[in-house]
Amino acid sequence: MALSRIDTTNMIEDVPQSKLDNNINFRNIIINGDMSIAQRGTSASSISSGAGFDTVDRFSRYVNSGGTWTISQSTTVPSGQGFAKSLKFDCTTANGSLSADSELSFFTKFEGQNLQYLKKGTSSAESLTLSFWVRSNKTGTYTCELYDNDNTRAVGKTYTISSADTWEKKTITFTGDTTGVFGNDNGASLNCTFFLVAGTNLTSGTFSNGTWESATTANRVSSSQVNLADSTSNEFYITGIQLEAGQTASEFEFLPVDCNLQRCLRYYYLHASGLGQAFGTGFYYTGSYVIQASSYPVFMRATPSLEQVTGTGYYTIFRNSSSDAFDDFILSVSGSQRTNEKFFEIYNASDMSGTAGQGGFFRTNNANSFLGFDAEL
Question: Domain map of the chain by residue range?
Answer without folding.
Answer: 17-262, 266-374
